[in-house]
Specification:
Chain lengths: ~140, ~140
C-alpha cells in the first residue's frame, strides 16, 4: 500500500476540549454581574423644585393639587388632614383619583430623615401621582 | 547503532492568543457599558428604599451626600459652598436638561437634601430626581 498511513500519526491530533476560554468567559461574566447588580438596583424618583409655582398653585382648587406636609417621621398632613405615614396610601389614592392633574406638592420638616421623605414620594407615585413638586418652607 | 535515533516530536511553542483577546475584548465592552453608569463617587451611602422606578437616564450628574456631610459632584468631592458654581459649570459643559440625581443617605436630615435641591435648582438644573434603591416586591 503506497498511501498507507504510518502508525502513531493519529497521536498528533488533540481530542481534549479546551476549557480555558470557557472558564475565562465565565469568570468575566461573574465579575460583570457582581459589578452591575448594585447599579441595576439603583433607581430614582423624578421631582420638581417649585418655589414660585407652588405658591401660585395655592390659588387653585383642592381637586387640582394635593398638598402633603411631612410634619414628622411618622405623620403626614394630607390637605391639612393628619394621617400616619404608613397609612398614607389609603387617604391619598382616592384624592389622586379625583384629581385632574394628579399633582402633589410636598413640604417636609427639616429634621425628618431622608428615608421617610422618600417613602412619602414613593407612596405618592404608587398612588398615581404624575407630578411631584417639592417646595421649601 | 542502526535504528536507535528517534526524531523528537515537534514542540508547539506558539502562545495561544485566543483567551487573551477574548478577555481583552470583554473588558473593553464592560468599560464601554459601565463608564456612563459609574459616574457617582464610591461613598458610603445607604440609599432609601422605594418600589417605584423612574428617571433612569444614562447621562446624569450625581450629587452624593455622605453620612458625614461630605458632598461630591459625580466623582469629585467639593465643599458645599461651591456646589452652585461647580454644578452650573458642569451643566454648561454638558447639557442644561441633563438629569441631576441627588444621592443622600436615608438617615440624612431632610434639611440637607432641601438645600441640595435648592442649590441644584439655582445652578440651572431643570430635571431633578432623588436616588433610591429598589425595594424587593412584597416588602412593605
Amino acid at each position: 500500500m503506497l498511501f498507507k498511513r504510518k502508525a502513531g500519526r493519529a497521536e498528533d491530533t488533540i481530542h481534549e476540549v479546551n476549557m480555558v476560554p470557557l472558564v475565562d468567559v465565565s469568570l468575566v461574566l461573574v465579575v460583570i454581574l457582581m459589578l452591575a447588580t448594585p447599579l441595576a438596583l439603583e433607581s430614582s424618583i423624578a421631582v420638581r423644585k417649585s418655589g414660585a409655582s407652588a405658591r401660585r398653585a395655592d390659588a387653585r382648587t383642592k381637586t387640582e393639587r394635593i398638598e402633603l406636609n411631612i410634619v414628622s417621621e411618622d405623620s403626614v398632613l394630607v390637605n391639612r388632614i393628619q394621617v400616619r405615614r404608613a397609612k398614607l396610601g389609603m387617604t391619598l389614592r382616592p384624592l389622586l383619583n379625583e384629581s385632574e392633574f394628579r399633582q402633589v406638592v410636598v413640604v417636609c420638616a427639616a429634621d425628618v430623615p431622608h428615608g421617610a421623605f422618600v417613602d412619602v414620594l414613593d407612596q405618592a407615585k404608587m398612588c398615581g401621582a404624575l407630578d411631584i413638586a417639592i417646595t421649601g418652607r | 547503532m542502526r535504528g536507535s535515533f528517534v526524531k523528537p516530536a515537534p514542540v508547539n511553542v506558539k502562545i495561544n492568543l485566543t483567551p487573551i483577546i477574548d478577555v481583552a475584548l470583554v473588558l473593553v465592552i464592560i468599560l464601554l457599558i459601565t463608564a456612563p453608569l459609574v459616574s457617582a463617587i464610591d461613598m458610603d451611602v445607604s440609599l432609601p428604599l422605594a418600589l417605584t422606578r423612574g428617571a433612569e437616564d444614562e447621562a446624569r450628574i450625581s450629587l452624593t451626600l455622605g453620612k458625614q456631610g461630605e458632598l461630591a459632584v459625580d466623582d469629585k468631592v467639593i465643599p458645599f459652598e461651591s456646589l452652585r458654581t461647580y454644578l452650573a459649570s458642569e451643566l454648561a459643559k454638558k447639557n442644561k436638561d441633563i438629569l441631576v440625581v441627588i444621592r443622600a443617605d436615608e438617615g440624612t436630615p431632610y434639611e440637607m437634601v432641601r438645600q441640595m435641591l435648592s442649590e441644584a435648582s439655582a445652578a440651572g438644573a431643570t430635571r431633578l430626581s432623588i436616588a433610591t434603591r429598589q425595594k424587593p416586591k412584597g416588602q412593605s
